[in-house]
Amino acid sequence: MNSSTTQKIDIQKASTSRIGEVDFNNLTFGSTFSDHMFECDYKDGEWQNPTIKPYGPLTISPAAKVFHYGQAVFEGMKAFKDEAGKVWLFRPEENFKRINKSSTRMAIPEFPKDLFFEALTTLVKMDKDWVRQGLGNSLYIRPFVMATQEGVSASPSTEYKFMILMSPAQAYYTGDVKVVIAEHYSRSANGGVGAAKAAGNYGAQFFPTNLAREKGFQQVIWTDASKHEYLEEAGTMNVFFRVNDTLLTAPVSDRILDGVTRKSVIALAKRDNLAVEERPVLVSEIVEAAKNGSLKEIFGAGTAAVISPVSAFSYKETVYDLEKQEDGYAARFKKELMDIQYNRSEDPFGWRYEVL
Ligand code: COI
User: Fold this and answer.
1) Tens digit of pLDDT for each residue in 327-353?
2) From the CA of 237, how far away is ligand 1's center (Å)?
3) Which GO molecular function, any one, fits this protein according to its record (predicted)?
């Protein structure tokens, strides 16, 4: 792996900050961006010209391969400000490893580790005022890579752009999330790109999710592509089921994203001696558990929402309601994770990464 570089980042500061124009109490997730962004191009076999510049539009050829073949991957991570004003990232090493894993799957060259961390920390330091204090407030960080070579031949690009954008976010209230268990559409297949955070994985979900919305549900629980017998992910998140006091989730595979929140929930559960099973979870066993009352909770786990409880699911036109659990596992893991993220508790796993 090309893990180090000697390149210096060219820093072009914005002449004025846009922060005064932002209503931090009324943010729509992912639609406001901080003053600066990071950009680095891959050309002639190497990453070059790393630059931090004012956030703004790009000029890219309409024939760039990303527009035609979707050769693009991304990451999602967050910066948090604690009560003393210190800024922290949560397990950024995991996002770094995963973006390169996703890139490899999409035939994109890996990005150097030291440049990733240098860019990330410099950018967060420059735009530190965009990380607001208060539980639930964060700066959502979006590293991504896209194929920029001009040309529509169906082959891997020889040129890429690696970028990092940052977007202030408030607590992500998903409200009452009702989900439909997929019986026809699939998110991923064996040998496919499900384990990669490939842009097209998300775009492909929009149509079936719209169909679910038309029926009054917010998300889809994805099932295996071959027989739709196993429960795999929920919307853009990993998914957990609590049957009695046992936590069940699908094992990571080339169909399942190795989620940072997912693995953190599992680590917290194991530390607390809760029963956790990472194994294929049958739709039929969850339907049966809903019928006999042993299904206590379903929740999604991801960076944006942290933990998102599901209030009902639909399968074969039958709706199964779940009782609201004020002190359930979802609430417990969300609190434990956020306490670590916001430096409100000990960090026994060493997950916090101090930026400044
Ligand atoms: C996450 O929460 O992990 C996501 O990937 C959400 C993003 C697609 C907005």
Assistant:
1) 899 999 999 999 999 999 999 999 999
2) 7
3) transaminase activity
